[in-house]
Each structure stands twice: as C-alpha cells, then as structure tokens.
C-alpha cells in the first residue's frame, strides 16, 4: 500500500497514554450514534481523528472482568506487541484517573474513577461476530453488517 496514508496517521506510534479528553473529542463524548459494538468488556465507538483518520475506541466497562493480578499497563504492553495479519492492531490507550460525583445512599460523594480505553485500527465492515452470529441467526448479510448512522 505504498503512498497511502495510515488512518491513524495523527497518532505517534508507538503511542503513550492518550488523554481522556482526546478520547471524548474523537468519539463525540462517547455518543450513542458513534457506537459500533458492545461486549462484556466495554463499548466500542468510532473515533474520528482531526485529519479524518478513523479509530475503534473501546471504552472499558467499570466492571470489566480482568484476570486477578494483571495490570492495565501489562495488558496494553502485551496487546501492542501482538502483530498478525488476522489481529486488529492496538494503536493507543487511555488510563486516566478522574474524580466523579455520584449519589450513594441519598448523598452525593466524590469518588476516584479510572477512564480506560483501548484504541484499535478501525475496520469498516464490522466485527467478525456480526458476520458469524448474524448469519447464523437467520439475518441476511445486508442486515448483519449494517452500520449505525
């Protein structure tokens, strides 16, 4: 693909911890119409970079099942080291502590939360599970790969 610009061209690679404000900006504050997928680990959003490039941003759920003893940094290092034609490349991440006000037992309290996101190459044809399970459940190919607008 000589001469083509990477869709992630505005990100320094290998990248460091990207700010949560950047994640919110490229996903339009994680709005529903940017959502492209969902799993037990979190929700995936389409992120549009300032130069028009596109990323898949997985915002990890606060209660995502993570193996005991593994840290976010170790997982990111392992994912970034993976290189294979059949695996979507991890190109960035966000792991940033934030203070949030929540209601607990009728009172408002300030809690420390961690905003955790993983940024992957964006594949425009949808996820593999939509192709496999969508077709398996009797959906036509057009319906199984339709995108939200």
UniProtKB/TrEMBL annotation:
<dbReference type="Pfam" id="PF07714">
    <property type="entry name" value="PK_Tyr_Ser-Thr"/>
</dbReference>
<dbReference type="GO" id="GO:0005524">
    <property type="term" value="F:ATP binding"/>
</dbReference>
<dbReference type="GO" id="GO:0004672">
    <property type="term" value="F:protein kinase activity"/>
</dbReference>
<protein>
    <recommendedName>
        <fullName>Protein kinase domain-containing protein</fullName>
    </recommendedName>
</protein>
<dbReference type="InterPro" id="IPR001245">
    <property type="entry name" value="Ser-Thr/Tyr_kinase_cat_dom"/>
</dbReference>
<dbReference type="InterPro" id="IPR011009">
    <property type="entry name" value="Kinase-like_dom_sf"/>
</dbReference>
<feature type="domain" description="Protein kinase">
    <location>
        <begin position="30"/>
        <end position="149"/>
    </location>
</feature>
<dbReference type="InterPro" id="IPR000719">
    <property type="entry name" value="Prot_kinase_dom"/>
</dbReference>
């Amino acid at each position: 693909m000589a001469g083509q610009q990477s869709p992630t061209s505005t990100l320094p690679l290998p990248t460091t911890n990207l700010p949560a404000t950047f994640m919110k900006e490229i996903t339009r504050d994680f709005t529903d119409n940017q959502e492209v997928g969902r799993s037990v680990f979190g929700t995936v959003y389409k992120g549009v970079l300032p130069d028009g490039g596109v990323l898949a941003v997985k915002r990890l759920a606060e209660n995502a099942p993570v193996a005991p003893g593994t840290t976010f940094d170790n997982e990111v290092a392992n994912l970034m080291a993976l290189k294979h034609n059949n695996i979507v490349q991890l190109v960035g991440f966000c792991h940033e502590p934030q203070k949030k006000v929540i209601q607990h037992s009728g009172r408002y309290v300030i809690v420390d939360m961690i905003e955790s996101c993983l940024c992957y190459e964006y594949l425009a044809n949808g996820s593999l599970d939509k192709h496999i399970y969508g077709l398996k459940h009797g959906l036509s190919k057009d319906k199984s790969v339709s995108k939200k607008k």
